[in-house]
Amino acid sequence: MQGAAADGRVRSLAVSMSTDDGVSWTRLPVGAGAVTVRKPAAGTGVFLRTELTGVDGNTLDQSVIDAYRPR
């Protein structure tokens, strides 16, 4: 981790996933800096998106397209 995420200066963190090429997103619960992703059907591409705001107001939005594809 880097920046606010590395030193705990996080005001809010949201993580979402999509299994339909980013058409719809499901918010995942964040606990102790981690999320649990329910395994989708084999061969389904998983997109991940994070939205972070630091205590200083700086923001980071990041998406990973086809983060993984279960077998």
If you had to describe this structure to a student in words, what would you say it looks like?
The protein is mainly beta. The chain is built from 1 helix and 6 strands, in the order αββββββ.
Structural class by SSE content = mainly beta
Question: What's the number of domains?
Answer: 1
Strand order of the largest sheet: 2-1-5-6
Let me know the average pLDDT. 89
Helix content: under 10%
Which series of helices and strands comes N to C? HEEEEEE
Given the structure, what is the number of helices? 1
Q: Bin the strand percentage.
A: over 45%
What ranges have pLDDT less than 50 throughout 5 or more consecutive residues?
none
Q: What radius of gyration results from the CA coordinates?
A: 13 Å
How far from one another are the termini? Answer: 28 Å
- Largest sheet features: 4 strands, antiparallel
Total beta strand runs: 6
Q: What global shape is seen? A: elongated
List keywords for this structure.
four-stranded antiparallel β-sheet; mainly beta; 71 residues; 7% helix; two-stranded antiparallel ribbon
Question: Secondary-structure blueprint of this entry?
Answer:
Elements lengths: L2 H5 L2 E9 L7 E3 L1 E2 L2 E2 L10 E9 L4 E10 L3
Summarize the structure.
By secondary structure, the chain is mainly β.
